[in-house]
Each structure stands twice: as C-alpha cells, then as structure tokens.
Amino acid sequence: MTQELVRMQNINKFYGRIHALRDVSLTVNTHEVVGLLGDNGAGKSTLIKVLSGAVPMTSGEIFVKGKEVQMRSTTDAIENGIETIYQDSALVPQLSIARNLFLGREPVKGPALFNRLDHEMMNEVAGTLLKRVGITKNIPPTTPIGALSGGERQAVAIARAMHFDSNLIILDEPTNNLGVAETQGVLRFVREVRDTGHSCIFIAHNIHHVFQVVDRIVVMRGGQVVADNIDPKQSTIEEVERVITGEHLIEALGLEH
Amino acid sequence: MDNRSLVQRFIAKPEFGPLVLLILEIAIFWSINPDFLSPLNISNTLAFTVELGLIALAMTLLMTSGEFDLSVGSVFGLSAVVMWTVFNTGIAPLPVAFLIAIGLAMLIGFVNGWFVTRLAIPSFLVTLGMLLIARGSALYITDGFPQRTWNAEDQWLAQLLVGDFYVGGFRVYMSLLWFALFAFLAHYLLTQTKAGNWIQASGGNPNAARARGVNVRRTKVALFMLSSAMAAFAGIISSIRTSAANPNSGTGYELEIIAMVVIGGTVLTGGRGTIIGTVLGIFILRIMRNGIVMVGVPGLAYNIFIGAIILGMMALHSWLERRHNAGT
C-alpha cells in the first residue's frame, strides 16, 4: 500500500517580478524515490528550497502525512522529517565524521551541568553507519570531513539523514563532481534509503543516473510541473529528454515539417 | 591512517610546532643566562603572563567560532577603572564594585555580539568601534588620572584574586591558579562538550551548523560576552597586583593576545582552535619578553622577535596543513 507522505499544493513563488513557481503541485509517497528533472531555470531548486524551508513560498500549502505544516526555516523542515543534502553545505569540514553526524543533536552523558559529549556512543554509531552506507575502507569516525573524498562526504550526509529517521531525504545533485565508482556508491545508498523505509527526492542533471534508481519521474519546465508520472521502466531516456526540452509539444502540434 | 606511527601522529598535531619553539626558547635563554630559570624570575614571569593568558583563553574560543575581539585591551583598562571608582567614591563595597565591573564588561560583549550577529557587521569593525568607546570612557571617567587602589590589602576579594603563597622557593600568585582552572575549563568546554561542538561548527561552516539546528548567533554572542568578562577579570587582577588602575593600561594587548592565539595553532578564520596551543603561545611570547631582557638584548627590540615568531609560525602551520592535506 502506498501512502501519501508529502503533498505540495498550488505552490507559487515570486522573486520580485519573476514568477519562479506557477501553481506547482508535487506528491511523494512513502517508500518512493522520485526523480525531479528539468533544465536549468526550470524551478527544481526553488521548489526544493521551499520544501526544505530555505526560502518562503509566496502562496500554496504543504502537507506532511496529511497535516498542513509551515516551513519557516530549515529547522521546521527537519522537525517534519524532511532532510535536504546539498552538495557542499551540509557538513563542517574541520569536524570529525562522528561530530558531524550528531551536530545539533549531540548525545550527552553524565550530569547535565557538565554538558559532556558521549564520545564512545558517537564513534560507535558512526562506525556502524559508515559500514551500512557502504564505506568499506577502514576510515576511523574521528577523521575530519575535510580529509574525505566527495563521495565519502555524500555518504556521511546520507548516513546522517538515515540515522535520524528522516522520512524524506532530498538529494540535490548528489552525483555532481563524483567519479564513476563514487557515483555507483551514491546510487547504492539511494536504493538502501528506499529499502529501509525512507522516501527520497533525487535531483540530477544526469538522466542516466536518475533512470537507475527512481520509481517515478517528475519533469519541470518554466516553473511548472509538465509531467509527474513517468515510469522509468516504461519510457526511454530520449522520451524524457523531449519532455524536458518541450520538443514533444512541438511534435504533437505537428509543427515539424 | 593506521600505519602511521605514534610519533608521526604527534608531529602532525597543530600543537607540535609551538611546543618545539617553546622548548628551544627556554633552552637558548637558559644557556645564555642561567638566572633565567631562577625561582624568582619564574614567579615574576608567571604573575604577569597569566593576566594576558586569561584573555587569550577566551579569545581562543571566540576565534574558533569565527570572530575576534579587538576591544579586550580597552575593556581590560576600563573595568579596573570602573571598579576602583565605584569603590573609592563609597558607592559600593569592593565585591559589589567587582560585580558591577564584570557586569558592565558582559554588557559590552553582548553589544559586540549583537552588532556582529544581528547586523552582520564584521567583528573587526564592531570591536574596533568598541575599543575606542571603552578606552574613551575609561579616560573620561578618570580625567586621565590613575585611580587609587592601595587600600586593597585588607580586602578578602583582593587576596582571593592576587594573594600569594610560597611553595618551596617559588612565590605562587593566586592568579596562576585561576589561570590553570580557566585553561582546564576552556579545554574541556572546547573538546568534550556539546557547546564545544557548536563553537567549532559555527566557525567551520555556519550554514551547515544553522541547518542542523545549531544556534550560531547565541553561541557567538555568549563567546563575545565571555571574552569581555575575562578581559575585565584580568584587568582587575592586574590593577590589584600593580596597585594602579590606570585608564591607559591594556593598550595594544588585543594584538598581542591574538598573536598568542594564532601562534598556538588556532585558525584566524575559525573552525579549529586549541587551548593547549594557546597556552604554549602565551608562554612563547611572555618568555620571549622576559628572556631577551635577561640575556641583554635591548627591550625595545622585543617586537622584532615577536613579529618574526608570528611569521615563522604561520609559515610552519601552512606548510604542515598542506602536507597533511596532500597525505590523505
């Protein structure tokens, strides 16, 4: 049974006089990986920023598990179980893997007055999580993030979202600037995310990557959702590309000679 | 990672450079003038060292969070003047005057923090303004004259802050114990607590920290208040020890303190800080000041050595940093 997890309804966003989102509606179900595609300027990033509380919407409604919620800040989004992982802004490079995992929600042991971090627990959880997201290299959890590769950083950010039971994990261009092996790693985490009961919105320029992991493709163009139920198993990459660029409309109207 | 030996890991630590420098420095001064390590000279050096050191501890935490405070030298001078003015005019007894001075300093820190976090003005400019306001206030209150402090001797508070006792041949000042206590607390706070994690995250990547629910603003404001309070505490200790609350005292301390912190390995741009390094940095600079006089170099040449140490240590830190990054 699929259940509705997040529903965005009639979202409008103006940047000054620019109408960036026009009556956009988007639904994500539980246990679902949705691929969000669109050309540059199609409104993908704006939509995600609205959902993650980074920018306020001009009008519209957001429901989480059927209840209307207000997204005033990124903290609101996290409290509603929506975690957004941006390429580079998610982690503190100087802090260790374990310290990053628990940043803002650090476990404390002993009397409250001493405010003492539970290092053993943090390191232990971090170690197990790293194995779970497929980092097989023996990286100690005390390694600073700055010493990790791009793919390993993505893995840490995804591991964090999984550990704190985010219902919906939004991945913004997670495969940008990654090597082939690292990309495969990230795609594997996305499948793992779904298998452990989370939902995911996957944004990427590379349609091949999207096709490998998502259950459903949503396409945006010019601030509108132009297709929201493309099944990657029943369509080809070329068809989706035509929807993204809008060529299929031209074909349908018979304007081609 | 695992195949690196213990020695190599020790060398890679940011505190390693300052430690070697400190040992070298002591060895050189001692070999030129054996009196350098006499109990008298050690006690005298320590007494003066810890006053600046107290401020450097708080500054380390503040700089780790990505900000710094140029007004500490002025607050150092102002709070002593305020405390003694309140006491000498008979407005309040000494302990109350002490609390008033510390409270005023915390208010100054709060204003610094408010301007930096709410109005997003760089801390360089905000605290430069505050430097002038605090120094101007100290001069205005006193008409430029030092305040009387000599009836401090029969006060328990004065004894608690700067009293002394002998351990063998060493004269130990209470301020040294205060310094040791605060150094331990600051190290514990930075490395072992949730608050310490927030301080490092606020300096390392404020956007990521904010996105995780870390209150970056409140963290920074609290650290500005701490840095001002410590400057006031140090200024009061100094005024009792030297029996003078001079409105001009503390001039130029801010830069020497920032130098101590960066020599110890704390990064000016935030994210990484070390209290152990700062303690080493404090001793490197103060021992240099004492040592070059002891070995007969004219005291006026002091700044040449300090400048050379800063440049040398920065070069070393940047070299270690690059080598460290290349190795992983």
From TrEMBL, chain A:
UniProt KW Transport keyword: yes
Residue ranges the record marks as coiled coil: none
Domain of life assignment: Bacteria
Record-linked InterPro entries: AAA+_ATPase, ABC_carbohydrate_import_ATPase, ABC_transporter-like_ATP-bd, ABC_transporter-like_CS, P-loop_NTPase
Alphabetically ordered keywords of this record: ATP-binding, Nucleotide-binding, Sugar transport, Transport
Domain ABC transporter: 6-247
Signal peptide (UniProt feature, chain positions): none
Protein's name in the database: Simple sugar transport system ATP-binding protein
Organism from which the protein derives: Aminobacter aganoensis
From TrEMBL, chain B:
Lineage: Bacteria, Pseudomonadati, Pseudomonadota, Alphaproteobacteria, Hyphomicrobiales
Coiled-coil annotated residue ranges, if any: none
Annotated localization: Cell membrane
Identification of the protein by name: Simple sugar transport system permease protein
Any single Pfam family the record assigns to this protein: BPD_transp_2
Membrane-traversing stretches: 16-33, 45-63, 93-116, 123-141, 170-190, 221-237, 257-288, 300-320
Organism: Aminobacter aganoensis
Gene Ontology MF, one: transmembrane transporter activity
Recorded superkingdom: Bacteria
Membrane topology: Multi-pass membrane protein
GO cellular component terms given for this protein: plasma membrane
Primary location: membrane
Record key words, sorted: Cell membrane, Membrane, Sugar transport, Transmembrane, Transmembrane helix, Transport
